[in-house]
Amino acid sequence: MNSRRHFLKSSGAIAIGSILLPQLAKSANRKTIKDIGLQLYTVRDEMMVDSIGTLKKIASLGYKEIESATSAKGYYYGLKPAEMKQICADHGMTLRSGHVRYDDKWQQTIDEAAESGQEYLIVPTMPTRGQTVDNYKRAAEIFNKAGEACNKSNIILAYHNHDAEFEKDNGKVLYDVLLENANPEFVKMEMDLGWVIMAGFDPLDYFAKYPGRFPLWHLKDMNMKERHSTEFGKGALDVKKMMQHSKQSGMKYFFVEQEEYTGTADECLEYNIKYLNNLKY
């Protein structure tokens, strides 16, 4: 009787172990998020008042990658390109990319980006107007030439989407037209995950259809009812699932961006980086 009871206990332990061990192994193999980036539009007002102090604050929270944005003081918030590069480096960060305008000063923009040490220049608006297939084909041609000019200075051009790119013309999604006509050698994509889901699309579908085309992300959660960004975990974006498909997308760097706050910009910065630091995928 005792031997039978011992056998049943042992068998039960083995059965439980066979269930738990793979789960524990899977949990142990989960990745943590590293090299968290920030799009400086998140702290746009603070950068205008005190750019150096704001960069120091960002670094103290643990952000490592920086993406600048267009401002009333220029692409570098009143700093020289090399100066901003050095300030970031002095505080353990890298100025990785910047949002700029495509205009008649394009070569100057490229030269300044090279001086700043950036790897990427990001255009966040279409160079021509019109929500038509033909216009998006024309835009792709412009971006191909702009990207080729960037390439000569060892800089990579990328296009950043909003939600308008997911409108249709003659049954064709316009973002797909851009992807199909842009030369992947010279034109990459910075996918704003939040605006994709706001448009009613799934980023994972694009990662599967166009693998490796999205080396940059804007990691942005969205309040779908209010149609604006929010803190991670409070909106519709499944951050963990996105990270699980980062390799398929070709993602090299991502930048947290939050355009609206429930509190202050500083509180937003702290909340979001804490959320990401605690996330395993």
Describe this structure in words.
- The structure is a single chain.
- The protein contains twelve helices and twelve strands.
- It has 281 residues and is an alpha/beta fold.
- It has two domains: 1-30; 33-277, Divalent-metal-dependent TIM barrel enzymes (TIM Barrel).
- α6 links the parallel β4 (120-123) and β5.
- The chain is globular, with a radius of gyration of 22 Å.
- The model has no long low-confidence stretch (mean pLDDT 94).
Q: Which spans of ≥5 residues are poorly predicted at pLDDT below 50?
A: none
Mean pLDDT, to the nearest integer, reads 94
Whole-number total of structural domains? 2
Q: Tell me about the largest β-sheet.
A: 8 strands, parallel, barrel
Q: What is the chain-wise order of helices and strands?
A: HEHHEHEHEHEEEHEHHEEEHHEH
Strand segment count: 12
Question: Radius of gyration, Cα only, in angstroms?
Answer: 22 Å
Strand order of the largest sheet: 1-2-3-4-5-8-9-12
Assembly of the depicted chains:
single chain
Task: Describe the global form.
Answer: globular
Quote the beta fraction. 15-25%
CATH-level-4 superfamily name of the largest domain: Divalent-metal-dependent TIM barrel enzymes
Helix amount, in percent? 40-55%
CATH class of the largest domain: Alpha Beta
- CATH-defined architecture of the largest domain: Alpha-Beta Barrel
SS summary, helix count: 12
> Helices and strands: which structural class?
alpha/beta
N-to-C CA distance: 47 Å
